[in-house]
Amino acid sequence: MKIVGELEQMVSEDITLDHRVHARIIGARGKAIRKIMDEFKVDIRFPQSGAVDPNCVTVTGLPDNVEEAIDHILNLEEEYLADVVDNEAMQVYMKPPAHEEAKAASKGFVVRDAPWTAGNTEKAPDMSSSEDFPSFGAQVAPKTLPWGPKR
């Protein structure tokens, strides 16, 4: 009867908790949230990914415990949110302005007066021609193998 009486006294409250701080409140492998739930003897449920309201967190337990847990969580949110806002501001500061990125990306590499361009009427040089590629008088020795059978 005592357990049934406690279950009947339990309440659930939904609070709005910025989704950007959920991971910090939950902690690595849920360690931080388990500590909070054990300390205040409450159950805390975060929304599933893709939920209608990603900021809605449900705290369930005895009324006094729920109120204390909510106060604690909202204090943590305030601390963590200041860090999140600072990090976002730092990311904006560190990232180059968008107009410089667009200018650099649009300029690209341009080849002009190349043999394959449409406006050029000259033919591309013939690589096997001694006229297009003279040898400057040097004799090219035939390729020989340093060792092995001779042909």
From TrEMBL:
<feature type="region of interest" description="Disordered">
    <location>
        <begin position="116"/>
        <end position="151"/>
    </location>
</feature>
<dbReference type="InterPro" id="IPR004087">
    <property type="entry name" value="KH_dom"/>
</dbReference>
<dbReference type="InterPro" id="IPR036612">
    <property type="entry name" value="KH_dom_type_1_sf"/>
</dbReference>
<feature type="domain" description="K Homology">
    <location>
        <begin position="9"/>
        <end position="78"/>
    </location>
</feature>
<dbReference type="GO" id="GO:0003723">
    <property type="term" value="F:RNA binding"/>
</dbReference>
<dbReference type="Pfam" id="PF00013">
    <property type="entry name" value="KH_1"/>
</dbReference>
<protein>
    <submittedName>
        <fullName>Vigilin-like</fullName>
    </submittedName>
</protein>
<dbReference type="InterPro" id="IPR004088">
    <property type="entry name" value="KH_dom_type_1"/>
</dbReference>
<keyword id="KW-0694">RNA-binding</keyword>
